[in-house]
Design a protein that fits this description.
Helices cover 24% and strands 36% of the residues. It is an alpha+beta fold. It has one domain. The strands form two sheets. It has a six-stranded antiparallel β-sheet.
Length: 261
C-alpha cells in the first residue's frame, strides 16, 4: 500500500470514528432528555438510525429515531414497556442535541405499549398466564400481520389456570382484542372458546364449567394511552406480549408526551 493510500485510509477511518462518536453523543443526550422530560426512572434506549450520522445533523433532520423504555410504571398492570419509532424527524427548533422542551415535527410515527404475560396475568387474576399469537399466524414467516411483527387481534391463545372457575389445570382459550371507550383507551379481552389440540394446553373443560372458564379470561384494561398521544390502530401479540400500536403521520410532539399517564 502506498503512502498516499495509507493517508487516505487514515482520514476515512478518522471521519468514521468522529461520525460514530457524534451519533453516540446525540443518542445519549436524547436518552437523558427523554428521561427528564417524561419523568422516567432510568434512561430509555435510543437509536438514531442511518449512516452517516453527521449529514443528518447538519441538515437538521433525522431519518429515523427509536425510543424504547422498559419496565415503566404503568396504570393497572404495574409495569409495561413503551416504544416509539419516528420517521423524518425535524430538528429546526431542537438542534441535533435535542432539547427536552423543543417541538419536533414528525413525518410518521409508530407508537406502542407492550405488556408482558406476567403483568397482564396478575391484572386478570391468572398468575400463570401465557399469551401466544393466533395459531394460524404462528407459522407465518413474517411473524405477524403488521410491519413491527404484531399479530392480528382475533383468536389469540391465552393459557392459564382459571382457579376462579374452580379448575386446577391449565386451559387454553381463544381471546379477541379490541379497543373501546370514548377516547379509545380501554383494551377489551373477549374470550370466545376453549381450545384443544396442538399448540394449546389440550385440556378439555366440562360443559358445566365452560361459561365460568371463559369469564375468567374476560377483562377490560382502561387508561392505555400510547406514547405521544397517538391513537391506537391495531392490537395483538408478539412473542408472549400483548401490544397496542398506533401509527399516524404529520404530528408535532414534545419529549414530555412520551408518557401519557
Amino acid at each position: 500500500m502506498t503512502r498516499s493510500a495509507v493517508a487516505v485510509l487514515t482520514v476515512v477511518l478518522a471521519a468514521i470514528a468522529v461520525d460514530f462518536g457524534a451519533a453516540i453523543l446525540a443518542e445519549y443526550r436524547l436518552s437523558r432528555a427523554v428521561r427528564n422530560a417524561a419523568h422516567l426512572q432510568w434512561d430509555p434506549s435510543v437509536a438514531i438510525l442511518g449512516f452517516p450520522f453527521s449529514p443528518q445533523a447538519m441538515r437538521h433532520h433525522y431519518d429515523e429515531v427509536e425510543i424504547k423504555a422498559n419496565d415503566v410504571e404503568h396504570r393497572h398492570v404495574g409495569r409495561a414497556s413503551l416504544e416509539a419509532t419516528m420517521h423524518s424527524v425535524g430538528l429546526t427548533d431542537a438542534s441535533w442535541l435535542v432539547r427536552p422542551e423543543a417541538p419536533l415535527p414528525i413525518g410518521k410515527i409508530e407508537s406502542r405499549i407492550i405488556i408482558d404475560s406476567a403483568h397482564l396475568g396478575a391484572f386478570m387474576g391468572l398468575k400463570d398466564l401465557m399469551v401466544e399469537a393466533p395459531t394460524r399466524e404462528s407459522n407465518d414467516a413474517t411473524g405477524g400481520t403488521t410491519e413491527s411483527g404484531i399479530s392480528g387481534s382475533q383468536g389469540l391463545v391465552f393459557t392459564a389456570t382459571p382457579k376462579s372457575a374452580g379448575l386446577e389445570e391449565r386451559v387454553s382459550v381463544s381471546v379477541d382484542l379490541s379497543i373501546e371507550g370514548p377516547e379509545r383507551t380501554t383494551l377489551v379481552f373477549t374470550p370466545t372458546e376453549v381450545l384443544t389440540g396442538p399448540g394449546t394446553a389440550d385440556q378439555e373443560v366440562p360443559e358445566e364449567n365452560r361459561d365460568a372458564v371463559l369469564a375468567a379470561f374476560a377483562a377490560r384494561l382502561p387508561d392505555q394511552r400510547l406514547p405521544f398521544g397517538v391513537a391506537p390502530t391495531s392490537q395483538g401479540a408478539r412473542g408472549s406480549d400483548v401490544i397496542i400500536e398506533g401509527i399516524t403521520e404529520g404530528l408535532t410532539i414534545t419529549l414530555a408526551e412520551f408518557t401519557q399517564s
